[in-house]
């Protein structure tokens, strides 16, 4: 990417251009257990998207510092039982939760998925004691991160992995621009992403 013109390697072809705009957005934070192969077979990264598939069933939500609360509340509207497993202390939410079919567990550490072609359950550690939950799906709601792994060492990234740009959407490499959620910025909204794209396209 440091040469000019830039060469972009796709799955089937290579493309060359004088300017490149990166708009790769965000990706879900994973459990790091290779669970991606079970997406659609008992693993989901979007409670809002997939709640309807598990209507009347028991599901688990893996959460970090409350990141799964919104998903758990959405799932509780359709699922018989929702097990919210958070890495921190959710005592405040647990005390004020009005949806009786949400069970809240704090100080949880993920151990493994119980699988047999599809996900059958999840095993965790709670206060240093192992506990297994039989569930139809594990919803991984650990937040989002920028899709920038391939740019490490090539472009300047901030401490959270977002591409650093100036007001013209220029990155640290001449001819390479970034826009939208993948770049550093206070707001991650559609309206700001569109504005970023307009600026990047103009100056590219």
What is the topology?
Elements: E1 6-9, E2 14-17, E3 20-22, E4 26-28, E5 43-44, H1 47-50, E6 58-63, H2 69-76, E7 81-86, H3 91-96, E8 102-105, E9 108-116, E10 118-126, E11 129-134, E12 137-141, E13 144-146, E14 176-178, H4 190-203
Parallel strand pairs: 3-14, 5-12, 6-7, 6-12, 7-8
Antiparallel strand pairs: 1-2, 4-13, 9-10, 10-11
Low-confidence stretches: none
Q: Per DSSP, what share of the residues sits in E-state strands of 2 or more residues?
A: 25-35%
Spatial ordering of strands, largest sheet = 5-12-6-7-8
Q: In this structure, how is the largest beta sheet organized? A: 5 strands, parallel
Whole-number average pLDDT?
93
Mind telling me the CATH superfamily name of the largest domain? FAD/NAD(P)-binding domain
- Which CATH architecture of the largest domain is right? 3-Layer(bba) Sandwich
Strand element count:
14
Number of helices: 4
Please state the structural category.
alpha/beta
Domain count, please report it. 2
Radius of gyration: 20 Å
Shape: elongated
CATH topology of the largest domain: FAD/NAD(P)-binding domain
Helix percent reads: 10-25%
What is the CA–CA distance across the termini? 15 Å
Q: What is the chain-wise order of helices and strands?
A: EEEEEHEHEHEEEEEEEH
CATH class of the largest domain equals Alpha Beta
Your description of this structure?
- This protein has 204 residues and is an alpha/beta fold.
- It folds into two domains: 6-25 and 147-203, FAD/NAD(P)-binding domain (3-Layer(bba) Sandwich); 30-141, 3-Layer(bba) Sandwich (FAD/NAD(P)-binding domain), CATH 3.50.50.
- Helices cover 16% and strands 33% of the residues.
- It has four helices and 14 strands.
- It has helices at 47-50, 69-76, 91-96, 190-203; strands at residues 6-9, 14-17, 20-22, 26-28, 43-44, 58-63, 81-86, 102-105, 108-116, 118-126, 129-134, 137-141, 144-146, 176-178.
- The strands form five sheets. The protein has a five-stranded parallel β-sheet with strand order 5-12-6-7-8.
- The longest helix is centred in the last third of the chain and has 14 residues, at 190-203.
- The chain is elongated and about 55 Å long.
């Amino acid at each position: 990417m440091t040469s000019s013109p830039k060469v972009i390697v796709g799955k089937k072809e290579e493309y060359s251009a004088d300017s490149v705009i990166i708009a790769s957005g965000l990706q879900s934070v994973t459990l790091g257990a290779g669970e991606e192969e079970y997406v659609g077979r008992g693993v989901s990264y979007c409670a809002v998207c997939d709640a309807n598939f598990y209507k009347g069933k028991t599901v688990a939500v893996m959460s970090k510092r409350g990141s799964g609360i919104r998903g758990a509340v959405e799932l509780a509207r359709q699922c018989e039982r929702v097990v919210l497993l958070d890495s921190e202390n959710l005592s405040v939410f647990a005390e004020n939760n009005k949806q009786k079919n949400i069970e809240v567990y704090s100080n949880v550490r993920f151990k493994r998925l119980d699988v047999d072609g599809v996900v059958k359950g999840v095993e965790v550690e709670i206060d240093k004691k192992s506990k297994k939950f039989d569930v139809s799906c594990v919803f991984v709601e650990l937040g989002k991160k920028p899709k920038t792994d391939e740019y490490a060492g090539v472009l300047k990234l901030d401490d959270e992995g977002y591409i650093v740009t100036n007001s013209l959407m220029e990155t640290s490499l001449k001819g390479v621009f970034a826009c939208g959620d993948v770049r550093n910025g206070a707001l991650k909204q559609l309206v700001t992403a569109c504005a970023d794209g307009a600026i990047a396209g103009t100056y590219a």
